[in-house]
Amino acid sequence: MLNGLWLGFFIVAAVSAMAQWLIGGNAGIFAAMVESIFAMAKLSVEVMVLLFGTLTLWLGFLRIAEKAGIVDWLAKALGPLFLRLMPDVPPGHPAIGLITLNFAANGLGLDNAATPIGLKAMRALQELNPSPTTASNAQILFLVLNASSLTLLPVTIFMYRAQQGAPDPTLVFLPILLATSASTLVGLLSVAVMQRLRLWDPVVLAYLIPGALLLGGFMALLATMSATALAALSSILGNLTLFGLIMLFLLVGALRKVKVYEAFVEGAKEGFDVAKSLLPYLVAMLCAVGVLRASGALDFGLDGIRHLVEWAGWDTRFVDALPTALVKPFSGSAARAMLIETMQTQGVDSFPALVAAVIQGSTETTFYVLAVYFGAVGIQRARHAVGCALLAEFAGVVAAIGVCYWFFG
Predict the structure, then answer these.
(1) Residue 164, helix vs strand vs coil
(2) How far is 307 from 309, CA to CA, in rounded Å?
(3) Region 166-191 average pLDDT
(4) CA dihedral in degrees (57, 58, 59, 61; nearest 10)?
């Protein structure tokens, strides 16, 4: 899938460049494409340096949280909920702890760190699967929730914005929180309908109703605020939450007699190993996207969408953010490349760049997650996983665009 997508970028770029040369007389198009390749290769290394630091930092803190028992506490706290949502998984099964840790990594925006944990969780669920080649209900629910991109603290998005020179990298914190809540809710409801889960069970409602009321009340409060106040609040909450989590991990670790420094270094080494394997993929995708943009093909496609949006009488500013949304279901690295490219061409705090950042933080690489997670355990029949995951993806994109108009429009 990724092979075809990556090759397709270059083929489309080549066709577009030939058309511009033979029809438009633009002989300099090829020089621009070659220059773009080298520029994006350089940018990949610059982004990678910051990514090394971010992944190393957060996997270090996550290891402290793990050794301090915070992850185990979360597993026990969520155990009654998972017992109702995943009735086929026995209480106390290792899969519950792994699922919780996976959600914690996703919640912190560490999608690259969440993947190996998620694969362990999928293998643990496969041990309970009565039909090894067909996805179980528990596996589908886990995958759809994973694909719905439940991101509470999108540190990698903050990192990309900081790397591109944003004066306030956490400006998109609240928009991402609201958009990802919408995608996760749609994902949960769609699976509940297909699997006939009893969401009205008193225990399930005891978890969902307080969360829904809290989110609803929070949104009602936000509705009374101006766009300037919303942006300021998003910045304050983003930075406060980020530093508050760090202090929570450290203080709980110290109280539990965890050697926090040694635990941090242990986790940081894992983060370094994860990060260093990403550079080839980042170079590949950024160069492909750069060629696509330099050839004029991307602009041509966006102009077509823009004309349709204008014909419908809608505002067109979000159209320049759509490349991130269109490739995100197929490839996270391609979507990251599109996001970074949008920031560079439009400006890091431009409306399209803000929308692209929120889309990146509230959606997931649906087809990639399906291929990797199910492929790792030999699942061949996905059942309703694809439809539910894509519905959650669509909800995340629509919510991201709507929330950005609310906050930044």
Answers:
(1) coil
(2) 5
(3) 86
(4) 90
Name the token pair of 95. Answer: 């899969």
Of 13-17, 20-24, 137-141, 278-282, where does mean pLDDT reach its minimum?
Answer: 278-282
Handedness of CA 386, 389, 391, 393 (dihedral sign): negative
d(C-alpha 372, C-alpha 99), whole Å: 16
Task: Provide the number of structural domains found in the chain.
Answer: 1
Q: Is residue 271 part of a domain?
A: yes
Q: Is residue 139 part of a domain?
A: yes
pLDDT band at 113 (very low <50, low <70, confident <90, very high): low
Task: Tell me: pLDDT of 230 over 80.
Answer: no
111 within 8 A of 336, measured Cβ to Cβ: no
pLDDT band at 250 (very low <50, low <70, confident <90, very high): very high
Q: Which long-range contacts (CB under 8 A, 24 or more apart) does 270-275 make?
A: 270/59, 270/63, 271/55, 271/56, 271/57, 271/58, 271/59, 271/60, 271/113, 272/52, 272/55, 272/56, 274/55, 274/59, 274/112, 274/113, 274/116, 275/48, 275/51, 275/52, 275/55, 275/56, 275/112
Q: Is residue 279 part of a domain?
A: yes
pTM over 0.85: no
Residue (of 2, 80, 19, 37) closest to 297 by Cα position? 19
Confidence of residue 223 (pLDDT cuts 50, 70, 90): low
Q: Specify the pLDDT at position 219.
A: 67
Question: Which tokens belong to 273?
Answer: 């190993």
Contacts 24+ apart (CB under 8 A), 79-87: 80/203, 80/207, 81/203, 81/204, 81/207, 83/203, 84/197, 84/198, 84/201, 84/203, 84/204, 85/141, 85/197, 85/204, 86/137, 86/138, 86/141, 86/142
Q: Contact, 365 vs 336, CB < 8 A? A: no
C-alpha span between 106 and 23 (Å, rounded): 47
Q: What's the mean pLDDT when you consider all of the chain? A: 81
DSSP letter string over 238-287?
HHHHHHHHHHHHHHHHHHTT--HHHHHHHHHHHHHHHHHTTHHHHHHHHH
Distance CA 5, CA 389 (A): 20
Instruction: Specify if 23 maps to a domain.
Output: no
Contacts of 400 (CB under 8 A, 6+ apart): 175, 176, 179, 325, 355, 358, 359, 362, 363
Domain that holds residue 193: 28-408
